[in-house]
Structure formats: structure tokens, C-alpha cells
Fold this protein.
Amino acid sequence: MLNAGANNLDEQVNWIESRPPNEYNFIIELSDFTPIGMLSLIGINSIHRHAETARFLIGEEDLVRGIPVAVEAMKLIYAFAFDELRLVRLFGTVASGNPLMIKWQKYLGMKEEGRMRNHYFINGKWQDAIILGLLADEYRNQSLPRMNALISAARRESEN
Amino acid sequence: MIESKDVLEIILRALQNLNDELPDDEKFEAGPTTPLFGPNATLDSLALVSVIVDVEGDVSTALGRSISLTDDRAMSQEISPFDDVQTLLNYIMTLVNESP
């Protein structure tokens, strides 16, 4: 299911058709086209040249073990945003109760820009939203080399 | 100068920090032979980054100069530093024993 509100195929189709024109929703697939997650670029503003990364979901944990799927998906969407759409800034939010994702995003170049208090209600608890942002030069100088390194490390391991 | 046992302690502490963040059904046993990254590995990329960040920070602080575990040199090693705890320890000791 694409979200908790789409309980059947018709509702999913309706949800997909209702997407505004200023966003892209990608299915993440393995090389054999097995779908294992999704990733979106939403709120694309062509005047201010920014957008938000969102709906980053990876399921099928057993299928992706040992494959750097998360890093490769993020690398593809960053390249699409900065190189094809020529955006200058990406941003996103991560729940404060997800410290591994916050650490991961920061390591890959995102900078913490703010915090929205009690922004999410997850598993019965209020959590802050940590606002993270990435500029085009940070993507090229920090994100890209580190993503390439992680992908290289994982691919090497899987070839050994 | 920090010694091998100090670096091992830093790596195991980083793995323990990671364990503390994982749900009970994903916790793992951390030791010198724990595999890190790859098809049979314990960590996914989110978890590996957590360990890298903690280890880079703690070793750099102890050493008084910064080290990088994901630069071109690390990736070109014949044996990947991220095979397991021991290969990571060996690679870090190579960096530690070099002149600043």
C-alpha cells in the first residue's frame, strides 16, 4: 500500500491520480524489477528551485540484505533533483525518534536547520520533526563522494 | 598514540550504541568477529553509517587528528575495512600508525 489511507487498488489508483504536477513518486526496484520501496520528490518549486524529499520507504528487508538500496535510491533522486531539474536546495523532515536516519542523512551531507515540536504522532507518542536541508554544492562535495564510497563498499562485499 | 585495544573498545562501543537504538528483534551480539557489511552482514547502510560516524569521531578525538573511513583510500583496500570488526580494526591501526 502506498499509504495507510489506500486500502485497495481503486484507492491506490485514486491516490496516484490525485498527485499534483509538482511532484514525482518513484518505485524503488531491484535490477530484476522487483519493487521493494518508494521515494518521492514533492513540492518542487521551479522559481525558488527547491523541493522536498519524502515518502522514503523500503520494505522487503530480506530481499535487500547486503544491497545498498537506501544509498543508491538517495543517490538517484539527488542526481535527478540537482543535475536534471537543476534545483539548488533539497530539504526534508525526519522524526526525532529515528536517530539512525538523522545520523545517516547528516553523514550524507544534510544539515540540521530546525525542529518542529510535536509534529508527528507515531506509535502513540508525539515526536518532533527534525528539518534537514542540502544545497547543491554540499551534494557535490560531500554527499556524492560518501554515497559512492558506501555503494562501493557494499558492492565489493557482495562480489566477494 | 592509541593502541589496538583502545580502538577495539571504540568499535565495540559504537556497535553497542547502535544496539541501543535498535528494536529488540534486531539487536545483535557484537564482538571481534562480528561481520559488518555485505550479504551475510549484521548491518544495513543506516547502521553502518552510525558505526562509521561514532568510530571516526572517537578515534579522531583520541588521536588528535581526523581520520576518514570512507575515502578513496579506504575503498581501494585489497581487504575491505568493512568485512568485520577485525578488518575495520586493522585498517584503523594502519591509519593510526602513520605519521600525522
